[in-house]
Amino acid sequence: MTRALNKMSAAFVKSAPTGKHSDGGGLWLHRRSDGGAQWVLRVTVHGRRREMGLGSLSDTPLKQARMEAEKWRALARDGTDPIKEREKQRRQKARNLHMLGDVARDCFDARKAELKGDGTAGRWFSPLELHVLPRLGKVPVAEIDQIDIRDTLKPIWHDKAATARKAMERLSVCLQHGAALGLDVDLQAPAKARALLGAQRHKVTHIPFLPWQEVPAFYASLDQDTVTNLALRLLILTIGTRSRPLRYLRADQTLGDIWIVPADEMKGKRGTGADFRVPLSRQAMGVIDKARAHEKDGFLFPSVRKGVISDATMSRLMERRGMEARPHGFRSSFRTWCSEAAEAPWEIAEECLAHSTGGKVERSYKRTDFLEQRRELMQRWADFVDG
């Protein structure tokens, strides 16, 4: 038999005496002795009676209480516990309220192990921090769509193309992280935003480099044994290491004519566990011996104040001389020399530069770093550079 519904009037609810009053269908108004009142719904699920609060009378008028009661009664009729379902919905809502800023920082923390120096340099996170989070950081990730992303990156999409691409890529990783946390995220939003933004007009410019024929003259000009000059000379002679591992070179990393660079310091080898062995030419060992006179806190190229010389120190030396070329460009100088003058095998030249060669499967079977062949080639390069 159907139970009578809507027994109470709005006037009665307003002046109801202390006690419990039924509106039918399991909906009750409980008026307390202190004057306050609250709604309670009683339902039976799988033979078990359940009571759930529907809010206070001051916040929930009679009409709204009846609508809420019918919604939860319908679930109970289908065999769903309304109390558990409401708690589930609350948890889902709480998850969806995670702000992009929180998710991005959690994502960054999770990825630090695979980033150089645990990401302390900030280069992975900075595109987000500078160009995305100021506008979207306090927006729930569940609400971020392609329009939000387009409007955020549009000001830099063409003028700062490389930075905009990095920001888009980082944002996509953060959204994937949010999805892994169980958040309701639109993983296609970055791709759709990219389609809305269109192709970038920015033209890629490569780092200027010194023609290999001019390297010996420049190397000879670094005749004073200052920290910066010695660092530049060693960078030219050990071309595969890039700036960071060279600047952080410690005396205990060299053993005879081998410099062992930790994998975490090598671009492309982080996370592989494989250190990079650099064969040292006679000239390179001579530079290292001279650098030992400047050793401080274990570092061969220390800064005047604290730590090591900065990433820009060597660049500024070349800039002050009016040169367009930059330190990183010596890798191009060497690679061109390998092709045009040394006629070095392609794979050996690439290994000297610590480049990954071949496909993933091919690399998994590769069990050599061509140390002896590289030792011979690097000595030829050093002899050429040294004149």
From TrEMBL:
Tyr recombinase domain residues: 205-378
Any GO MF annotation of the entry: DNA binding
InterPro entries assigned to the protein according to its UniProt record, in alphabetical order: DNA_brk_join_enz, Integrase-like_cat_sf, Integrase_catalytic, Integrase_DNA-bd_sf, Integrase_DNA_bind_dom, Integrase_recombinase_N, Phage_int_M, Phage_Integrase
Bilayer-spanning residue ranges: none
Xref: SUPFAM superfamilies: DNA breaking-rejoining enzymes
Cited Pfam families: Arm-DNA-bind_3, Phage_int_M, Phage_integrase
CDD domains tied to this protein: INT_P4_C (cd00801)
Keywords: DNA integration, DNA recombination, DNA-binding
Record flagged with keyword DNA-binding: yes
Domain of life the protein comes from: Bacteria
Family statement drawn from the similarity comment of this UniProt entry: Belongs to the 'phage' integrase family.
Protein name per UniProt: Integrase arm-type DNA-binding domain-containing protein
Originating species: Sedimentitalea todarodis
